[in-house]
Amino acid sequence: MTRIVFAGGKVFDGSGASAQAGDVVVEDGRIVEVGTGLDGDEVVDATGCTVLPGLFDCHTHFMFGDIDTVKALNTPFSLPFYQAIGNMRATLECGITSVRDALGADLGVATAVRTGLVAGPRMQIAISMVSQTGGHGDDWMPCGVHNSVLHPGMPNGVGDGPEELRRIVRELVRAGADVIKIATSGGVLSPRSNPKLGQFRDEEVAMVVAEAAAAGIFVMSHAQATDGIKVAARNGVRSVEHGVFLDEEAVTLMLERGTWLVPTLTAPRAVLKQIAAGMTVSDHIRDKAISVSARHDESVRMAVEAGVKIAMGSDSGVGPHGDNLDELPLMVACGLTPAQALHAATRSAAELLGVDGELGTVEPGKKADLVLVRGNAEELAARSGAEFREAVSGVWMDGKRVV
pLDDT digits over 131-146, tens only? Predict the structure, then answer.
């Protein structure tokens, strides 16, 4: 059994504390020692580097590369499955070894990674988003066409009323969903919904949460509107995604219920960047993107100041895969320290996904998902996602180098 030692660097253990000088020893895919002056059969020279736990992105979309509807309509059905291979590789190269795919990837994509057919991070998949009729996730277009193609791996997520939602959740679980995603507010990119208005009533959200709990999985909620955030937190949703229009009552509810916030600060910026580059969107969608962007940072600062639990999510797929770490300095700008931003991408994210018993920290017994970064990881996290990505010099999963 080979004993690998990452020697001579600093260790950011994922706890939220700053990195300290230390070595990390790996055997048989697990971390077995963390300390100083450790030895091994094989040495990875970490001099001048930081060793971190494998990073998490709690909100990705491997089956998407951008939000250009015209391009999507002219893309052959199966092409995104092949493009996902590159998207997953770009994610690994950032040092991200675990993700939650928030819509798009089906059980086939996840199985291809889990069986080693293609390289990619560990993933939990939502498959489809549960949405009310006319809500964010209902791809009905004003011309009467539906801009989505359902297939055997992707059940329809649009429904109304507790009993219909019960059936939808059970169909998603049957299809392999590891997490249920619900839209409790409108969104920017859906044709007719309003991101300032809540969706679904308490009894509907409670049913989704209850059915997910019966299957042993959590619920995440696209929730931009104030009322949508509150209905999610009130009914036991595990995490609020985006959280654009928070108010004090919503923050208090999240604190009381232990609800995580996954801010996805890069998402509205990515939308506006694509619009500025000439992507065709309706005036309605453009105006929504501007409105959301204007308020988003303010709400995240409010949550950070109050002590709401934060986990990193980039909404990659709305923007380019590989730019995931742009989220780190944006979180720092909203009040997290660099160490807290990295904690949001390690231990806090692992806790959110319910995998903190195996991942998220550098400590004996954990799986050896590790990232080696040249320089000071905290300084990089505060400065630039691109610089952080370029500083990644190696990525290991289960003690095996994958990048």
Answer: 999 999 988 878 877 7
